[in-house]
Amino acid sequence: MSAVAVQKVFDEYRVLSDEVLKPGEPRVEKFLRAMRKSLQQKENWTFWLPYTLSLDTCMKCGTCAEVCPVYQATGRKEIYHPVYRTDMLRKIYKRYFTLPGKLFPWLVGAEDLTEEKLNALAENVYRCTICRRCSYVCPVAIDNGVIVREARKIFDAIGIAPDELKKKGTRLQLQAGNATGMPAVAFLDMVEFLEDEIEETRGYRIKIPVDKEGAEFLLMHNAGDYLAFAETVMGAAEVMHAAGVDWTLNSPNTGINDAVNYGVFYSDVEFSAVIKAHVETARKLGIKKLVVGECGHAFEALKYLILRLIPPEERPFEVISILELEDRWIREGRIKVDPQKNPEPVTFHDSCKLGRLGGMFEEPRRILKACCPDFREMTPNREMSLCCGGGSGFAIMEKGGFLKFRMETYGRLKAGQLKATGAKVVACACSNCKAQFREIINYHKLPMRYAGVSELLANALVR
Amino acid sequence: MDFGHYLIAGVMPYVAVAFFVFGLGYRIVYWSKAPMHLHWELFPYPHTMLEQLKEMITEVLTLHSLYRFNRKHWLPSLMMHWGFYLLVGWLVVLLLGFSFAAYVGTTGGVLVLAGSFSLFLLRLLDAEVRKISAPVEYINLIFVFTLASSGLFSGFLGDIQLVRSYFLSLLTFKPDASIAADYLIPLLLFELFLIYIPFTRMAHFAAKFFTYHKIKWGELH
């Protein structure tokens, strides 16, 4: 380990290492070239309209700041104001790509880009989880989130992206089948281990099908769940088994066996490569429905972002969240639950990607109310839910002191919310949220645990 | 009648309206022709035309986003916006020949004046908003304030008979520039305002259609 202190470029944190950011090298010209491309309809059709409208139309009223978790949690620190962040890009946009900014920079707040400003911007776009709470309340529906994401895209185009998301994220996933780098042999061992675990805790053995062709349901989890949140994987398997449906998991032997798509966080090129690999895998297996496990951004990607990227005839399967299935099966009486098996008070965290971005508000609530007698709402919730701070890749980013940032901003607000419920369990249906809750509970010493929705449901199953 | 007078009262009105219509039209067409972006909705959102209309009208008339989340901006913004709505209404009732047009115009002018003034003060005195403001933000508000003052204090908004005849002369393409002699300053400011709007964020009333209907409320229905 090198003991040399990392150069400060924005605040006291550094998510981008010197090797990635290369703070001493000239990158401004490259950045401006990539930004010019991002502003062209043809080059950037995927987000051109929300992006340019958001650059052009902000009225500077500051409504976004009133709901931004980072700004609020840091005691309204100027550098964490959502508009301060987006203005860092907007000033460049005005200076180099608009006439008034070229002619009268001072008047319209246009500024030259320097290497120092570039460094600061690269870091600051990783201080926002793109939870889009601000966009929800903006009177003009300006989206700070899309600007942050576009800035991340520009940086990625010039080779600046966190290793966690690219080298050890999308690149690894495309090569190994999953972003954890778990080979097929290890995966199959893991599944067997989970079967043993279920037998040990429940007293009965179930068979977890893997790589079954033509199954009705292909359940794809966030592969990190097998290592970190195995209870969710086991819970889902028990539910599938109890429902008596024709289902399967898949191993890296069949292609991609990881629902994640970190491209959602920083790059359309990566996003598109991963989702095409997802589709290819599902087609090869000939399954009818692709079930997204408890993973927020994977749901957003496979349910919504995919729609205009890949024509319907090229994806001959339905995409559905495990929550929708579980909710449906409980209501149909296909699976039976005994809520008394989960006697502790339970609260639910709306993951941004499932809730505000996915519309999945009622399904998890109906499931939890059916299998937990003491269900308590957190306030605020649903579309005004506070991001836990694990979003947009943060959950797997720790170095450069970043864990502290996650805990002291989003984490602190969330801890306060959790405490106020008096619940003993916080349920959620997103891996990134779980990874963040694991740390929040530890860091803020909360007398509670986190659990997957499927885990609580499996615990309440009546055989 | 000198050349400047004729220009302001006889020619510029057409130029300004043309700029406004074509400038704004160009931007709207440009936005409408944008390639269809990936789905980027925020839930929950209104699904039917009726629900969307209801939500949009509520937002336009009450600015309830500001009311709920940024209360200190709400009243000043509401005053300024209602002032503009009334001034648009003034133009209509004036042309239709209603005598109460004078009240509508004056109330509108007063609201725009009070709204823009308080928004200006708010932007100047509130450190958080000041820090995210560029000079152009203040200039826009001063522009609106000056426009409203000149409309009010010159008597333009209240002089309904004369203003009506003048507007009718414009509408029939027989501009009677001579009768507008006393109102050259408010006229000029208004014309410049019309020219200015399409190229600035003040066109947000049009941009908003896209940010709401095409993006936030999406196209899933």
TrEMBL record, chain A:
Keywords linked to the UniProt accession: 4Fe-4S, Electron transport, Iron, Iron-sulfur, Metal-binding, Transport
Coiled-coil regions listed in the entry: none
GO terms, molecular function: 4 iron, 4 sulfur cluster binding; metal ion binding; oxidoreductase activity
InterPro entries referenced in this protein's UniProt entry, alphabetically: 4Fe4S_Fe-S-bd, 4Fe4S_Fe_S_CS, Cys_rich_dom, Helical_ferredxn
Domain 4Fe-4S ferredoxin-type: 49-79
Pfam families recorded: CCG, Fer4_8
Name assigned to this protein: Fe-S oxidoreductase
Automatic annotation (TrEMBL), chain B:
Record Gene3D superfamilies: Transmembrane di-heme cytochromes, Chain C (1.20.950.20)
Compartmental location: Cell membrane
Residues covered by the NarG-like domain: 100-212
Annotated coiled-coil segments of the chain: none
Major site of localization recorded for this protein: membrane
GO terms of molecular function: oxidoreductase activity
Keywords: Cell membrane, Membrane, Oxidoreductase, Transmembrane, Transmembrane helix
Gene Ontology CC entries for this record: plasma membrane
Keyword Nucleus: no
Superkingdom of the source species: Bacteria
TM annotation in the entry: 6-29, 82-103, 109-126, 138-157, 177-199
Membrane topology per record: Multi-pass membrane protein
Listed name of the protein: Nitrate reductase gamma subunit
Organism (species): Desulfofundulus thermosubterraneus DSM 16057
